[in-house]
Amino acid sequence: MLHTAPLNVRREGNYVRLDDAEEVIGWCQAFGCTAAQLRQAVAAVGPAIADVYRYLRALT
């Protein structure tokens, strides 16, 4: 289930960082997605949180 807003995620600016395993786990929990889906989203639209959120929301 995709949550409406990322919660409890340590942020580095307004971007999703894939180089930090803990942050990936946090984003996956916040977005309700798998790590593979998160990486696919970042590859498709870039690391901006809002863009990743919209991309993942469109998958559901």
UniProtKB/TrEMBL annotation:
* Domain of life per record: Bacteria
Q: Which InterPro entries match?
A: DUF3606
Pfam family for this entry, one? DUF3606
Question: What is the recorded name of this protein?
Answer: DUF3606 domain-containing protein
